[in-house]
Amino acid sequence: MSAAPDATPITPALLRDWPVPTDDRGTAFVLGGARTVPGAVLLTGTAALRAGAGTLQLGASERHATPLGVAVPEASVFGLPETDGGAVSREAAEVLRDVLPAARVVVIGPGLTDVDETFALLERVLPLVAEDARLVLDAYALGALSREPELVKPWAGRVVMSPNHTEAEYLLGGEVEDYATAAAGIADRYQAVVSLMGAIASPSGERWFDGGGHIHLATSGSGDVLAGLIGGFLARSATPEQAACWATHVHALAGQRLIPKTGVTGLLARDLVAEVGTVISELTQ
């Protein structure tokens, strides 16, 4: 995919001139982790910590709360009710009523299943998020949102979306022929900053492009890592545009660094998380 003619290339020099604050590290809350995919919130949450979130909170299916707490000892974990089919239930909003208002950024989607239940969950959860917080939507949260774009309009200017190709088609209601154009279309329709396969667009019409990713980043869990990176930078008070650009570039560079170690087909999403700290350190020197 080539960049749009008016897209600004994302380079290390660009990011060094656009530094993310390091002295203000807020709380990131990750909501997801249905019965069959509890590892998604683990990947997203640990990526948020690597990107600099000060405090991590995870919300996942009740049956996975204790194992997640052991696997990510840095996090507070909240067990959430689930449906008979194993999806995180819309009733989870009651568990989170006193928790979400304190989060600086809320990431919703990694490991959610059942688009109907996810839509109902969004309806109940979004009003609980603080008015000055930021929102990251990914995975099933995007499929659910495509049913009613108005649901996210109160978050105009404060939301970042990180769809894959299929999710982008749901959000647009049609085929994706060019990622740059699709990202711009989604950004305008939902009034959100969008990171789509290296193409980044803001609702005000700004565009960026990162060509450092490779096809082998399209591996299971890689999108969860990207959503977590965006959330982590937002927890450090980055702007939505800044967080999307930094996260997309760090995600791509981490994948590049891993090729000599894992080969192009052996990359795992957890490997990306392990590289994030080094990549960020190099970019900030």
UniProtKB/TrEMBL annotation:
Record-linked InterPro entries: CARKD, Ribokinase-like
SUPFAM superfamilies assigned to the protein according to its UniProt record, in alphabetical order: Ribokinase-like
Pfam families attached to this UniProt entry: Carb_kinase (PF01256)
Keyword list, A-Z: ATP-binding, Lyase, NAD, NADP, Nucleotide-binding
Keyword Ribosomal protein carried by entry: no
Residues reported in the UniProt entry to bind (6S)-NADPHX: 40, 111, 224
Biological process, per Gene Ontology: metabolite repair; nicotinamide nucleotide metabolic process
UniProt-recorded Gene Ontology molecular function terms: ADP-dependent NAD(P)H-hydrate dehydratase activity; ATP binding; NAD(P)HX epimerase activity
Domain of life, source organism: Bacteria
EC id: 4.2.1.136
Swiss-Prot/TrEMBL catalytic activity: (6S)-NADHX + ADP = AMP + phosphate + NADH + H(+); (6S)-NADPHX + ADP = AMP + phosphate + NADPH + H(+)
Matches recorded under CDD domains: YXKO-related
Residues where AMP binds: 223
Primary role: Catalyzes the dehydration of the S-form of NAD(P)HX at the expense of ADP, which is converted to AMP. Together with NAD(P)HX epimerase, which catalyzes the epimerization of the S- and R-forms, the enzyme allows the repair of both epimers of NAD(P)HX, a damaged form of NAD(P)H that is a result of enzymatic or heat-dependent hydration.
Subunit-level organization: Homotetramer.
Family: Belongs to the NnrD/CARKD family.
Full protein name: ADP-dependent (S)-NAD(P)H-hydrate dehydratase
Species the sequence originates in: Amycolatopsis bartoniae
Lineage: Bacteria, Bacillati, Actinomycetota, Actinomycetes, Pseudonocardiales
